[in-house]
Design goal:
22 strands, about 500 residues, alpha+beta, eight-stranded antiparallel sheet, five-stranded parallel sheet, single chain, 16 helices, binds ligand MV4, D-amino Acid Aminotransferase, Chain A, domain 1, 4 domains, Rossmann fold, Dna Ligase, domain 1
Length: about 500
């Protein structure tokens, strides 16, 4: 059993992991860069080690420094959180070879899922529906043309080493495919040092629905429902919810069982996410698997009353998970809004700086995961997410009310944030009706639809000064959903 865990991360996720460790009776080691001296994860951990200057490559991404910190503090395990080294197979391997447990899947599992064509082939073999397209890499434009002719246009080229939308290209005919092939492979070579591409049929205006899975080392893998993450902007998720307004009990079971079959294919261990695209006909297709805990994991935790971080640690210690699949049912409707230090009136430009004052909402059904405090200086070197506001209620309607109420209570002074943007989306009739897909934000940006406040249910709390300030009118670009600009 572990005595001490090193947390190879920062911000709210580092705090989240420290909290889980505390409740499990484990000692914690924080690592931090020079930009994070005053960060809460450093103050809340039992021990802390400075690992270098602010740039991630010289601190949170440098595994020699992380391993050195684990060795000097005698940590039994490393929890990578999300981002940074969470999906770095080499890092997982180095940890294990140094006798430090990597809290996550095996290096081989990370590698298998990191290669998008290998992952797809494995899933297909496991009986998971995959998007029609090339079996593996398309080696030439001619090769791509032949496959596109067979499956029909529009098609999409994706980088084998890609993910998160980088190195993708939509092609509507052979001419676009020729151009796209060269552009996408050059981009992929530059971004990932791997020019390999694969081809898929384009799914138009899909929902992004992902299934949470958790597996132990005793052959148990469970699915813990879905999260609808369709509200994204340039591949950055902004809002996540469960249950998905699109997903029926039957669809949840089919997507969940397929996800478990897929995870079983690699004997998956730990927390993972199977990402699906769901089309208009409610057909679902495997897109990729994330081999880490995700930013939006609290959505699942609140709805299913589980603790995914504790489960990750338990599984890493070789413990058996004691769930029964039939008991893993959604008990609450949950919504999460990501609060970023970004100026939504200025193309979501990051706005690092000092948080002069902060009021965090509370009350029944409200959870805020954040490492922000009054006086905290948001450094410019890392991502701009400063809080996650998660609410739960018995029904989606009540969760929407609760989210509006919580957003109105939330005050952050000193830096612009995405709070006003969320206040607007949560009042948009299509969002309220659950009528949205991955193109929602692009459509929302068009002047034809005016957001409208739900009538008859006025928010009765005294609105904060910030909430009374003029709301931003319009957001995001004018680009259509499937344009290549969005996909880059
Ligand atoms: C697609 C697609 C449509 N058809 N693949 C974007 C991120 C990357 N992981 C995969 N992505 C997409 N792949 C096919 N065959 C549309 C997207 C996509 C998208 C997916 C999920 C959430 C938001 C998105 C926004 C634009 C495009």
């Amino acid at each position: 059993m572990f005595e001490k865990i090193l947390i190879a991360n920062r911000g709210e996720i580092a705090l989240r992991i420290i909290r889980a460790c505390r409740e499990l009776g484990l000692r914690t080691v924080a690592v931090y860069s020079e930009a994070d001296r005053d960060a809460l994860h450093v103050r809340f951990a039992d021990e802390d080690v400075c690992i270098g200057p602010p740039p991630p490559g010289e601190s949170y991404l440098d595994f020699r420094r992380i391993i050195a910190a684990a060795e000097v503090t005698n940590a039994d395990a490393v929890h990578p959180g999300y981002g940074f080294l969470a999906e770095n197979a080499d890092f997982a391997e180095v940890c294990e070879s140094c006798g430090i447990t990597f809290v996550g899947p095996t290096a081989q599992q990370i590698r298998q899922m990191g290669d998008k064509t290998e992952a797809k082939a494995l899933m297909k073999k496991a009986g998971v529906p995959v998007i029609p397209g090339s079996d593996g890499v398309v080696s030439s434009f001619e090769d791509a043309g032949a496959i596109a002719k067979e499956i029909g246009y529009p098609v999409i080229l994706k980088a084998v080493a890609g993910g998160g939308g980088k190195g993708m290209r939509v092609c509507r005919d052979l001419a676009e495919l020729e151009r796209g092939f060269h552009v996408a492979s050059t981009e992929a070579a530059n971004a990932f040092s791997n020019a390999d591409l694969y081809l898929e049929k384009l799914i138009v205006s899909p929902h992004h629905v992902e299934i949470q899975v958790i597996g132990d080392t005793h052959d148990n893998i469970y699915y813990v429902g879905e999260r609808d993450c369709s509200i994204q902007r340039r591949h950055q998720k902004l809002i996540e919810e469960t249950p998905s307004p699109l997903v029926t009990e039957e669809l949840r079971r089919r997507m969940g069982e397929a996800a478990v079959q897929g995870a079983q294919m690699v004997g998956y261990r730990g927390a993972g996410t199977i990402e699906y695209l769901v089309d208009r006909n409610l057909d679902f297709y495997f897109m990729e698997m994330n081999t880490r805990v995700q930013v939006e994991h609290p959505v699942t935790e609140e709805a299913y009353e589980v603790d995914l971080i504790k489960d990750q640690i338990r599984v890493a210690q070789g413990e058996k998970l004691v769930y029964r699949q039939e008991d893993l049912l959604p008990r609450w409707a949950v919504i999460e809004c990501r609060i970023n230090a970004e100026d939504c009136e200025n193309d979501f430009r990051p706005t690092p700086g000092t948080i002069e004052a902060i009021h965090i909402p509370g009350g029944p059904g409200v959870r805020v995961d954040t490492a922000a405090y009054a006086g905290y200086v948001i450094p410019p070197f890392y991502d701009s997410m400063i809080a996650k506001l998660i609410v739960r209620a018995s029904t989606r309607e009540e969760a929407l009310e609760r989210m509006r109420r919580s957003l109105d209570e939330f005050v952050i002074q000193g830096v612009p944030t995405t709070i006003p943007f969320h206040r607007e989306i949560l009042r948009h009739p299509d969002f309220i009706a659950g009528r949205y897909d991955t193109s929602f934000l692009e459509k929302y940006a068009r002047p034809s639809e005016e957001p409208e406040v739900k009538k008859g249910k006025a928010i009765t709390i005294k609105r904060s000064a910030e909430a009374l300030a003029p709301q931003p009118k319009r957001v995001d670009s004018e680009e259509p959903v499937t344009s290549n600009r969005d996909l880059e």
